[in-house]
Design brief:
alpha/beta, Rossmann fold, S-adenosyl-L-methionine-dependent methyltransferases, 2 domains, 7-stranded mixed sheet, 4-stranded antiparallel sheet, 11 strands, 33% strand
């Protein structure tokens, strides 16, 4: 099977670095609302395991269920966990996506960073309903909405780069409208020695860019209040 995230995985943590401090700040704000006593924390689209590791490090005694269908990204997550044998009894990394996995009946919180755009309106409604049904009163889920907030053409530009030793790793992204709230993204990952291209991988995917007000209405329909934390991050709070 083709893994659309195989290209991303090659230098994922390096290229995610420009956004990581904002993600951690959002997680810190979420921390008081996480309820590990009520159930495991669900990490949807766990990627390289950065957020799973944050929970395990910062919430002693917590359990995590991490969902990551990409074999390449899941390998990064498991490699991160492998260095911490004391986590082995606290975390499960499942190879299914949200709709294929058997979710815990109760959750202490949820993290969905870099994920919501993979769902259309009907799928988002189903995700929110499942979360609302499992979160405790006052419990919360963390989401983000990728820029741009509404579909518009994005010209090709360097989105991130990082240098390790003599080599540079660069991400070039561009997008064109694909109808409705969708953009078709084209992402190119380069490994460079000066101006010489050593590796080049390109992947394309469709991503949904619903307006924040639309998402807020969808969440409210199942009893989740939405509050903006920063430019692209929000929490969904389960009302009593």
């Amino acid at each position: 099977m083709s893994d659309p995230y195989a290209a991303t995985a090659g230098a994922y943590d390096l290229l995610n670095a420009p956004w990581r401090s904002a993600q951690v700040a959002a997680l810190e704000r979420l921390r008081p609302l996480l309820r590990p006593d009520a159930g495991p924390i669900l990490d949807v689209g766990a990627g390289s395991g950065l957020n799973t590791a944050w929970v395990l490090q910062n919430l002693p005694g917590s359990q995590v269920v991490a969902l990551e269908p990409s074999p390449a990204m899941r390998a990064l997550s498991l490699s991160r966990i492998a260095g911490h044998p004391d986590w082995y009894e606290r975390v499960t990394v499942r190879p299914e996506d949200f709709f294929a996995a058997t979710l815990p009946p109760r959750l202490g919180g949820a993290i969905l960073l870099g994920v919501l755009g993979h769902f259309d309106a009907g799928e988002r409604a189903a995700v929110f309903a499942e979360l609302a049904d499992r979160l405790p009163d006052g419990g919360a889920a963390l989401i983000d909405l990728q820029q741009p907030e509404r579909p518009e053409a994005v010209p090709a530009a360097t989105m991130a780069s990082s240098r390790v030793g003599e080599l540079e790793y660069r991400l070039i992204g561009e997008a064109i409208p694909a109808g409705g709230d969708r953009l078709q993204w084209r992402m190119t990952y380069l490994g460079l020695d000066g101006e010489r291209v050593l590796t080049e991988e390109t992947t394309e995917h469709i991503y949904h860019h619903p307006a924040p007000a639309v998402v807020a209405d969808e969440a409210a329909a199942v009893g989740l209040g939405m509050e903006r934390l920063a430019d692209t991050t929000y929490w969904l709070l389960r009302r009593a």
